[in-house]
Specification:
The complex is a heterodimer of chains A (about 260) and B (about 290). Chain A is an all-alpha fold and about 260 residues long. Chain A has twelve helices and no strands. In chain A, about 80% of the residues lie in helices and about 0% in strands. Chain B is about 75% helix and about 0% strand. The chains are: A mainly alpha (about 260), B mainly alpha (about 290).
């Protein structure tokens, strides 16, 4: 009886999740009348705007990840080592992006950093790019911080630091050559998750008026029939790849540890 | 030695130690706290900068009230269904006697699906349940069922509910499986030894322990749906009257005709998602007491 119910729940769930994936794949192949073809994909890949927006989002994702690592790793390390009393406050701050919707945060950016403000970031393209990167870093903060902090929990931060210091290492050496390699798996997990979040992000990019992949997809969806599902298949593949890579690095590290 | 350390150190070291988190604090203040404060303060200001409650009072129009109500309804229903279905699937995998091989793929897939939100998700559902979608056509040609005739329209409230469930259910699975794993076998055995039936065990032992997790996750799903913009926007365009879309239109083109009303609209969103998350955080710490 329980097992019957269990199978029922699972099969229902699988149907619900597989149908849209099958649906979008099938639809994306139907561009040519009567036969399945990859015409929609060819059309998407021939579109220069696709490549322009995609590489723009990819660049921003890379910038977000680099910035996030530089921001989060030293902070999480320092809090664990020297400021355990600041931990609740820092954790609370890192959870705030889950509380405040992205649209509200970007609304604040637009009003706070407009051309007549103390930091007129929205006045220039590069300034807006920086602002968008900061926005993405904010969105990724909860995931990045938690991943790195969990990684730090598994190593003895204090002992490693003292050992490095007694060998004459400075703070930079400690962070770059002791701490970072030890939490690399956690950092990579956070990085891939950040990539998955940033690559198709719509709200912030659209409201800051930047030519990112998310707004491009939305615009295409409003005007075309067959290309959007093709884009959905591509986006799903990217998300899947990011999650697969997270699993891969985690599994890889487990093997390493088992060997040691 | 160890005893006189604490009173010596703070004198000259403490301020320097706080410097270590200065970059983080600067970032958080500039790109998280100040922007939010700007919204909150703006909600209580006149365009000239004086204090007023008029913006919040002005929210009380038919169109804005119904936008909030639709948003709250949407978030409640998707959170409720997400919790129920996600719990059923998680319980099926953890207790249902399914093969162990199912679990790993389900967790991985949930990780993917909970992140597959936004514009592409809307496309996937249009291709499936839209007017020319796979399932719509299949039902029509094979069974003569016209979904539209039954009142189902993907570009409507219920269409949005179905679409949101695609990321709500996996999120529930991801959060609740560790909680279900935390239910100790001994508790079940103890209950059985004392003569409890399966239903009694669930009602009097497992459910009370899981309750904070369940309600907490419910709150998280609620906030998750409430703040979502991209999926709804890509699905229905700017016409569906829910708060995030209204705010989106307001930021783009001041459709309300009063910039400070936009602040009030956003402030309302913070209040609602904030309340939901307070519930989540409080209940989460409470459930962690048991599930260790």
């Amino acid at each position: 009886m329980t097992r019957l119910f269990a199978w029922g729940a699972l099969i229902f769930g699988c149907l619900f999740f597989l149908l849209p994936l099958v649906g979008m794949t099938e639809f994306s192949l139907k561009m040519r009348r009567g036969v399945y073809s990859f015409d929609a994909y060819v059309r998407v890949f021939e579109d220069p705007t696709f490549w322009a927006t995609f590489s723009y989002s990819l660049t921003l994702a890379a910038a977000t990840i680099v910035f996030g690592v530089f921001l989060v790793v030293p902070t999480a390390y320092w809090v664990r080592l020297k400021l355990p009393q600041a931990r609740p406050v820092i954790e609370f701050i890192t959870l705030l992006p889950l509380v405040i919707p992205a649209i509200v945060i970007v609304f604040g950016y637009i009003r706070l950093y407009n051309t007549s403000s103390f930091l007129p970031l929205t006045g220039s393209a590069i300034g807006t790019d920086i602002l968008l990167t900061m926005g993405y870093a904010t969105l990724a903060l909860p995931y990045m911080y938690r991943a790195v902090d969990t990684g730090l929990r598994t190593i003895d931060v204090a002992t490693l630091t003292e050992a490095a210091q007694s060998l004459g290492a400075g703070w930079f050496t400690i962070l770059a050559r002791i701490i970072l390699p030890n939490v690399l798996v956690a950092v990579l997990s956070g990085a891939f998750l950040t990539l998955a979040i940033v690559i198709g992000e719509f709200t912030m990019a659209a409201l800051l008026n930047r030519p990112a992949f998310g707004p491009f997809m939305q615009l295409l969806g409003a005007n075309r029939a067959y290309e959007p599902p093709a884009l959905a298949v591509i986006a799903f593949a990217i998300t899947w790849a990011c999650m697969g890579l997270i699993q891969l690095v985690t599994r890889f590290s487990k093997h390493e540890r088992a060997k040691a | 030695m160890a005893d006189n350390r604490p009173d010596r150190r703070p004198k000259f070291r403490l301020p320097l130690e706080w410097l270590g988190i200065l970059p983080f604090v600067t970032f958080a203040v500039l790109f998280l706290i100040l922007p939010t404060m700007k919204i909150v303060v703006g909600a209580f200001q006149t365009p000239e900068g004086g204090f007023t409650l008029q913006n919040l009072i002005d929210l009380n129009t038919d169109s804005i009230r119904s936008a909030y109500w639709t948003s709250i309804k949407l978030s409640l229903i998707t959170a409720l269904l997400g919790c129920a279905v996600g719990f059923a699937m998680a319980a099926a995998v953890v207790f249902g006697g399914l093969p162990k091989r199912v679990r790993g793929p389900l967790l991985t897939f949930s990780g993917v699906a909970s992140n597959f939100a936004g514009v592409p998700l809307a496309f996937a559902f249009i291709a499936t349940l839209g007017p020319a979608g796979l399932v719509t056509l299949w039902l029509k040609t094979e069974f003569g069922i016209n979904l539209r005739a039954y009142g189902f329209n993907l570009l409507s409230f219920w269409g949005l509910v179905v679409t949101y469930l695609f990321f709500q259910i996996p999120l529930m699975i991801l959060i609740i499986i560790p909680a279900l794993d935390g239910l100790k076998r001994e508790w079940r055995e103890a209950a059985e030894v004392l003569g409890a039936t399966g239903a009694q065990y669930w009602r009097m032992v497992a459910f009370p322990i899981l309750f904070p997790s369940l309600l907490g996750t419910f709150a998280l799903l609620f906030a998750n749906a409430f703040g979502a913009v991209a999926t709804a926007f890509a699905l229905t365009g700017p016409q569906l009257n829910i708060v995030p879309i209204k705010l989106f239109a307001q930021i783009r083109g001041d459709v309300l005709g009063n910039p400070n009303l936009g602040y009030a609209l956003a402030f309302g969103m913070i209040v609602i998602t904030g309340m939901a998350n307070v519930v989540y955080i409080v209940l989460r710490t409470r459930s962690e007491r048991w599930l260790k």
